[in-house]
Amino acid sequence: MWYIPGEMMNNPYLLLTPGPLSTSATVREAMMKDWCTWDDDYNQGVVQPIRRRLVAMATGEPGYTSVLMQGSGTAGVEAVLGSALPADGKLLVLVNGAYGRRMADIARCLRIPVVTAEVAETEPLSAELLTRELAADPAISHVAFVHCETTTGILNPLPELCAVTKAAGRVLVVDAMSSFGGVPMDVGDLAVDFLISSANKCIQGVPGFSFVIAREAAMYECEGRARSVSLDLFDQWQCMERQGGKWRFTSPTHVVRAFDQALAELEQEGGVQARHRRYQTNQDTLVAGMERLGFRPLVASDWQSPIITVFAAPDSPDYDFKRFYLGLKARGYVIYPGKVSTVDCFRIGTIGEVYQQDVAGLLAAIEDVIFW
Ligand SMILES: *Cc1c(COP(=O)(O)O)cnc(C)c1O
Question: What is the CA(177)–ligand 1 centre distance, in A?
Answer without folding.
Answer: 6
